[in-house]
Amino acid sequence: MNKVAVIILNWNGEKLLREFLPSVIATTDPTIADVIVADNGSTDSSVELLRNEFPQVKVLEFSENYGFAEGYNRAIKETNYPYTILLNSDVATTDGWINTLYDYMEANPNVGACQPKIRAYTNKSHFEYAGAVGGFIDCNGYPYCRGRIFDSVEEDKGQYDEIIPIFWATGAALMVRSELYLKVGGLDKEFFAHMEEIDLCWRILLTGSDIVAVPQSTVYHLGGGSLPASNPRKTYLNFRNNLLMLHKNLPDYTRGKKLFVRRLLDTIAWAKFMATFDFKNANAILKAHCDFKKMRKIYTSHPDIDLLKTRHDCHRNILVDYYLRGHKTWDKLQ
């Protein structure tokens, strides 16, 4: 059996499979990895397409739609490969992409997960918003990327081609040791969407494993296929899940203070929406906090280590850097 499972989770994504799967098949070394499509109970012709036009792809069929997180959790349990790559169905891969990641993981047993460089499929000279060249979070839990801070996305000029440790790797193309993935509980299905990979990576870091970005491997991500940035549903999920992530992964002695600060900052965000008469997004923030108060009771176990204090890459305040100091690119933060 091969060492790597490249798992693409699909739900009614026949069009995306037609467009992106050929590149994955053509560039994935068959002596290292198997390409697997885990189908989440699709009602379109996805499975028929796979059977008829991509017979070299293994198909794992679920009877219902388990969502992103639980779909991957079930798929990784059933496939049982040493390594798994969670690959979005809207990602095009390039020659050698998987060999580079695999060789790095094999040579560095302390690394629990890694990601390639993520460029935008529709603007190939620029990084892609959701992953760029590796993710970080600041002292208040706000995520940003090497190559993308808030809405400022950089052109790739080779400025971030160094392999470095990161805080989180994008779920668009995330390579992880399968045993470690299952050990930390996999993706949290309660998140539904947004920040579930950051939460997973936080738990991986708490085991003492490293996460790195390997820019010598490149993929292209379409992205933006779920919800636009201004959508109140996305606002709700981002605010709620960020609070849940902090609640889950911070120790007792710092969690209350950090969540208090976030409530203050979220109040400012709410006031900004109200001032611009964007009542739907303002209400989304209120709903996020209300639902967080209900959902936090699910999580009763908390770590003893505060990574926001112990890791040097979590010490900065990205709001101050970006909005007050005008640092719009990652290199200006260094």
How would you describe this structure to a colleague?
Among the domains are: 89 residues, Spore Coat Polysaccharide Biosynthesis Protein SpsA, Chain A (Alpha-Beta Complex), CATH 3.90.550.10; 79 residues, no CATH class. Strand 1, helix 1 and strand 2 form a beta-alpha-beta unit. The mean pLDDT is 95. The protein is built from 11 helices and 13 strands. The longest helix is centred in the C-terminal third of the chain and has 24 residues. Helix 1 runs parallel beside helix 2, helix 7 packs antiparallel against helix 8 and helix 8 packs antiparallel against helix 9. The protein is of the alpha/beta class. Helices cover 40% and strands 20% of the residues.
Architecture blueprint of SSEs:
Blueprint: E1 4-10, H1 14-27, E2 33-40, H2 46-53, E3 58-62, H3 67-79, E4 83-87, E5 91-93, H4 97-107, E6 111-120, E7 135-137, E8 143-145, E9 148-149, E10 152-153, E11 164-165, E12 173-177, H5 178-183, H6 196-206, E13 210-221, H7 232-249, H8 252-275, H9 279-295, H10 307-310, H11 318-324
Parallel strand pairs: 1-2, 1-4, 2-3, 6-13
Antiparallel strand pairs: 4-12, 5-13, 6-12, 7-8, 9-10, 11-13
